[in-house]
Request: fold
Amino acid sequence: MKILVTEVEPDDGRTVGALLAVRGHDVDFCHPPGSTGWPCAGLAPGGCCPLTDGGADVVVDVRIAGGPPSAREMGAACAVAAGTPLIIAGRAPEGTALAERATLVCAPDAVESACAGMSDVRLATRDEGPRQESPRAP
Reply:
């Protein structure tokens, strides 16, 4: 499965991405390691968007500490707009479109199982029912 990882803080998604890669998934990131968060891979000079150009099957937004959305999570917003399933790994940002439109919210250590359940899921419209919930993040 092709999985795009976004994160609130630099390197929050590194461990989750490594775990997914070890499990055989094709993992990409919106921001290369060590980047400041702007621009994303798709807007960088000569860049390629791993969501629109790479055909990600699911986007995982890693939110270890929670808090408000950050520029490093723009890929999560792009996933919602594109109808690509969005898994929030950690605390969903309350009162935001990301929280309301995420396909699934789970604990970071449950991401691999959550991704396995997304293999046939594609969002048809923004008006589908409420998101699924998996074990909550601390």
